[in-house]
What does this fold into?
Amino acid sequence: MEKHITARATAALQNLFIGDALAMPVHWFYNVHDLDKAFPKGIKTFEAPPEFHPSSIMSLHSTSQGGRKSAGAAGKADIVGDVILKGKASFWNRSNVHYHQGMSAGDNTLNAHCALALMNVMHQSGGHYDRDGFLQAYIQLMTSDEPAHPDTYAESYHRGFFSNLNAGSAPDQCAAVTHDTPSVGGLVTIAPLVIGERLNGTSLADTRRLCREYLALTHPDASLADVCDAYVDLIDGLLFRDDSTSVKELLLTATRGLPRRELTKLVEGNRPEREVVGRTLSTACYISDSWPAVLYFACKHQQDPLKALQLNAEVGGDNVHRGSVLGVLLGLIHGGPAGDLFDQLTEQASINRAIERLINNTASTR
It folds into this structure.
């Protein structure tokens, strides 16, 4: 396998975890003035989350199923505390508790740990996706009595999945549909699957199909699946491109939810990032805006990966999951990690080992 392909794949996966941890302390800050008050110097490196989160609505989220609290959930078993996030339920009933309270600078959030679990399963399967192996690893990660990750919050899809599992559904039939099923968090774990399969010689069409099947385990939504297809094609195009390929053209071609003409206008304009992602594009998790926001940052700041990830963090909203996906694209573009932050990740050793094993056990002859 050619060295530049290995370098791109490695950097993409490194940046997935960098983008996640960098944005973690200001995840779901929806007022940038609150963000600036908490971090007056901006987000330039890894930070611990503040105790007070002015935008937190974790107390409104259901602990028994996906989505928000509702009368229809009365009498249902608690999932948070009893099945997943054991010992963390008390934090869900208080106002203004940070979603990632108690985490340290350089820690990764739950979805990044799911990506790490998938990478380890793929290593055990010779670099290929194993549905049952992943489901077993996912359930073990989430339900371990001894915490296997440092997070306090679980997105709606996690809670819906384990509510269905607790009710007796088979693991491959536990996907739940809520108002935020089509969210960027569903794309966080896609890159390891694409990179592992493609470096092992799986066709692009078959890789795209596997990613759709994998996504449907937790995020059954047609619009998200369509963006997933675009993401798979973009990863592949950036990973295997030659010198004649235009990175900007690949990024603009991948747009969904926002016409190419409009995305181009935003990229070529001079408006501040917080106007583009915050006014024109929502900072929320919904894929209709979060995907073009990722492409905007990647296209606008492709020459400076660390700056792109810092700016993504500083616009707030669902910056953690956008940051993971953005980090992948920037790593593929540059073939190196963003700044010197990778070595400062709390789980750097285990993440690095998983990346090396996934890439080094590939059978690609490219």
